[in-house]
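Researcher: Please translate sequence to structure tokens.
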Amino acid sequence: MKHILIVKTSAIGDVIQTFPVVEYLKARDPEVKIDWVVERASARLVQSHPLVDRVLIADTKRWRRHPWLKKQRLLWGAFGRHLGRTSYDLLLDFQGNSKSALITHLAKAKEKVGFSWSSAAEKPNVLATTKRFHVSSKLEIRERYLTLAALAFNDSLDFKPSGIALNITEAEAERLERLDQKHPLRFMVAFGSNWPNKQLQQETLERFLELISERWEPHFLFMFGNSEEEKMAESLAVQFKGEAVGNLSLPLWQRLMGVMDLVIGVDSAGLHLAATTSVPTFSIFGPSSPRVFKPKGEQHAAYFGACPYGRTFEVRCPILRNCSTGACMRRVDPALVFQAFDAFWSNVLKSTLLSTT
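Model: Translation complete:
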């Protein structure tokens, strides 16, 4: 198998969670070439992956916004022709929806592998693939993608990804060196999420961090990605005598995570990026399942804010996007979160001490 195309266009967190597949493909055949179709928003991220050979950018959001415009039709046609110039030995469609079905249909590949009717995100996707496999949606998300790849080769899944350091520019390396100021204990706090119902209330986060500070006295780095998050990060930085850090590319953010002692976050791209490094994580979940989306391994722990209305789910809450209260996160008790954190971090330090003696 000499040339493989990955179709995983979005979102950023899901793209990151597909990275172990690249490691798996290279581990089973170091000579394989890997191309990847991705949305423009995630293109730089995939381009920075040292094991990906070529990135093809699909502006599907732009095309779908104005599909009737001649310019958009011409751009879509040009993308299709560009994609069709290469004949692949294997295509792996990890997106599993109608959007990726169009891309999979346009691509030339001897074999096009995707999810079965029972496990595809959108049923029309099965019309574009030539070989389909059932993969349980209850699996941890990275394991789900790795399972599909292993089934494509009829392999048993015993691969353990080690993580990859993403490529950064010289200017980013210089900035990393400036940010990498030595403190006895450094905790990164990635509190942001594009989905409001995944976010903690600021007062909840503040009280949780106060309890951490009283017990462990870390130096905090508060990450932000937009102007609203920047205000909160700066407020927290003043309160806890830490640093507000933003305007980082995802590759640089990953490298900065690599010099931290811990990343604290919610279910977001930042948490999934941390999972590509060796840094321990502690995360707070509410409308999504930590069993599915929490980074895997003993160095990762999560607190789950259960729904106060008794709603249960396997993967994501069905009203995640439109729940009017977001109570599973807004009513989280910071004392209970700290209790879970304190037990976890004590075990991390104990394990670290044992490994160095």
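Researcher: Any highlights?
Model: Residues 226 and 246 are 8 Å apart (CA to CA).
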